[in-house]
């Protein structure tokens, strides 16, 4: 059974960089296989795709977030990382990592991130 677990600070100040880690465990494949995505859900809104990192090739980001987003992985630790720079209160959301490109078969439980001074 594949398990994903997000971790990171629950509170980030405006203009700082939000940094989250997704730890992948279980299964026969590691983070250097499959597509891995980050998704968020702002309060009172629907799910919003942030970007993905493929098993080969380039990352792809939501156009409106592209200039401030970076997704990377550390295959030695089975970690995926999301960095979102210059955050504003609009980036307050529950952040999820998930396995897949447009359809996702495994999700983390999500981590709440609040952007506030």
Question: What integer value in Å does the Rg equal?
Answer: 13 Å
What's the shape?
globular
For the largest beta-sheet, the strand count, sense and barrel status come to: 7 strands, mixed
Query: What is the helix content?
Result: under 10%
How would you classify the helix and strand content by structural class?
Answer: mainly beta
* Portion in strands: over 45%
**For this entry, what is the oligomeric state of its chains?**
single chain
Average pLDDT number: 93
Q: What string gives the helices and strands in order? A: EEEEEEEEEEE
- Number-wise, the strands total 11
List the uncertain runs. none
- End-to-end distance, in Å? 39 Å
Tally of separate helices: 0
Topology:
Layout: E1 3-7, E2 11-12, E3 18-25, E4 36-41, E5 48-53, E6 60-61, E7 69-74, E8 79-84, E9 93-100, E10 104-107, E11 111-115
Parallel strand pairs: 2-11
Antiparallel strand pairs: 1-3, 3-8, 4-5, 4-9, 5-6, 7-8, 9-10, 9-11
Account of the 3D structure:
This protein is globular. Strands 2, 4, 5, 6, 9, 10 and 11 form a seven-stranded mixed sheet that branches. A four-stranded antiparallel sheet has the order 1-3-8-7, with no helix packed on it. The protein contains no helices and eleven strands. The model has no long low-confidence stretch (mean pLDDT 93). It has strands spanning 3-7, 11-12, 18-25, 36-41, 48-53, 60-61, 69-74, 79-84, 93-100, 104-107, 111-115. A hairpin with a 6-residue loop joins strand 4 (36-41) and strand 5 (48-53). 0% of the residues lie in helices and 50% in strands. With 117 residues, it is an all-beta fold.
């Amino acid at each position: 059974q594949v398990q994903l677990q997000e971790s990171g600070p629950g509170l980030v100040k405006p203009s700082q960089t939000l940094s989250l880690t997704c730890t992948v465990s279980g299964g026969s494949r590691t983070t250097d296989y499959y597509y891995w995505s980050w998704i968020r859900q702002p309060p009172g809104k629907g799910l919003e795709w942030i970007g993905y990192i493929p098993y080969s090739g380039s990352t792809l980001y939501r156009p409106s977030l592209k200039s401030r987003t970076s997704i990377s992985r550390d295959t030695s630790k089975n970690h995926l990382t999301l960095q979102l720079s210059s955050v504003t209160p609009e980036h307050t959301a529950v952040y999820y990592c998930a396995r897949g490109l447009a359809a996702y078969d495994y999700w983390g439980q999500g981590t709440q991130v609040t952007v506030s001074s």
